[in-house]
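[worker-b] picked up task from shared queue
[worker-b] task type: protein-ligand structure
[worker-b] ligand name resolved to zinc ion; SMILES cross-checked against name lookup, match
[worker-b] sequence length check passed
[worker-b] input payload:
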Amino acid sequence: MPVKRKSRGRAKGGKGRGAMIQCSSCGQLVPRDKAKRASRRISMVDSALYKELRQKGTYVSSRTETRYYCVSCAVHRGVVRVRSKDERKQRPQIRRRR
Ligand SMILES: [Zn+2]
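[worker-b] inference finished, payload out:
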């Protein structure tokens, strides 16, 4: 059977039904392995002040917030993009900060 994606859009593999989670944006129930995960660091202080404090050598704590989006919300928010046939075959590049 020709498939659009090798993973069929999921990270399920051979396992059966997995947990469902709610999309953080629209609330739709999506399988956990299909949902797109976006995590970002949340700081208590704003960026200008943060920069200044870092320069002075202060440790500024921040927490990481992880959100799950359904595919349509992830595309809308720019978490993932629609990729061409050839691009879909490639592994997505993982961006890492420090
Ligand atoms: Zn959604």
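[worker-b] attaching auto-annotations
[worker-b] Residues 18 and 31 are 7 Å apart (CA to CA).
[worker-b] releasing lock
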